[in-house]
Write a structure and sequence with these properties.
Rossmann fold; 5-stranded parallel sheet; 7 helices; 5 strands
Length: 138
Amino acid sequence: MKALIDTNVILDVFSGREPHFEASSAFLRLCGTQITGLIAASQTTDIFYLLRREGKNAAEAKTIIQKLTDNTKIIDVTTTDVKNALASDMADYEDALLAFGGKRIKSDYIVTRNEKDFAKSPVPALSPQSFLEQFFSE
């Protein structure tokens, strides 16, 4: 199973955001072992910037991105993804870009804390908690 990971899930883990840390962390631990976790190349610059804004130095931010790429696969962003995102009915451009990249690479899900932002996404969205409950609960 392939799951494209929204930036907010990644920041929950590496910034220790509560009350989201536990579910997001449990989800990320599955990446590279039980599921194929994916991030868009364009997200790495956003993650770097946001980590720096939260007080991490450049070396810490790079280390976090390296750890992330050890357990996930990076997808490219194409011209077609950009054009589809711009033409979509999705309100947030970054979310639309993620959604259409996910569609192109045939991602099964987008894992995000903002499911409502992906209501018009061509790829279904689940929260980390919902993903865990649906696929990994006993």
